Amino acid sequence: MDELMRQVDELYERAIFNGEYDGLPAADRALDTVEARLLLQRGRILHCRFLQPHADPPEDVDRSQSRAEQPGESHVDPVEELAYFERAADLFRGAGDERGEAEALFWIGCFHQVVRDDNPTAIPFLSQAADLSRKTGDQLTLSYALRHLGIAAHMADDYPKARDLLEESTALRRTLNFTAGVAANLVGLIYLAIAQNRPDDARALAAEATTLATTSGATKITEQIEAARSRI
Fold it and tell me: Using an 8 Å Cβ cutoff, are 156 and 120 in contact?
């Protein structure tokens, strides 16, 4: 962000002092990227507020995996969250920033899956996000897209596909040393092991997930692990 703003400053000064106006389109693209990043962050914070729990978590944690935390009553306008993500995607696309576009597309998909509980609408956005993040080498966004595609497959009772997607996401997160993210994925894999009648695998996954969540201080994930362990 700082580098983009320095670029805009330089292009402004070239135009004002040197009459070099051919750099103004580049300044517009840089500003669009900055604006898109700000919109993305605003949407993410609104998403956190939507997820802020106001009620006891439901018993069916397995089917709630599309929601990182279960929201209760929320004062956030979800439509505003979606508008931020959609505008960010448009701006990133216009600026030719495919990496940013992939992230925005993921969040559009996440909104439809988590807020609207609408996997048919979410899946195309999540798939596009996965494709673009692979193309640009953004392993973190790819790990998120694969995770949520895995959640969708799990909810559709396609357990083999869900396992493949979650395991690929988990492998990426291990490479990135994203410990809390690995623990979060292992929760989903625990439920898949239970669904596929693999209790020994479920126990091993729960043990590893507990260690990782404790190490990273991810107390919310620890709660999810204990809920999953109680189902084994």
Answer: no
How far apart are the C-alpha atoms of 204 and 217, rounded to whole Å?
A: 20
Q: At what angle do helices 24-51 and 2-18 cross, to 10 degrees?
A: 150
* Contact (CB, 8 A) for 146 and 169: yes
- Residue 119's domain comprises 2-176
Three-class DSSP category at 59? coil
Does some domain include residue 59?
Answer: yes
Between the two ends of the chain, the Cα-to-Cα distance in Å is 47
Query: What is the Cα Rg of the chain in Å?
Result: 20
In sequence order, the 6+-apart residues with CB closer than 8 A to the CB of 187 are: 65, 209, 221, 224, 225, 228
The answer to whether position 183 is within a domain reads no
| Domain CATH code at residue 101 | 1.25.40.10
Residue 197: CB atoms within 10 Å: 8
pLDDT at 146 over 90: yes
Note the pTM of the prediction, 2 decimals: 0.87
Regarding predicted confidence, which is higher, 89 or 77?
Answer: 89
Number of domains in the chain: 1
Tokens for 109?
Answer: 């998909």
CB 14 within 8 A of CB 31: no
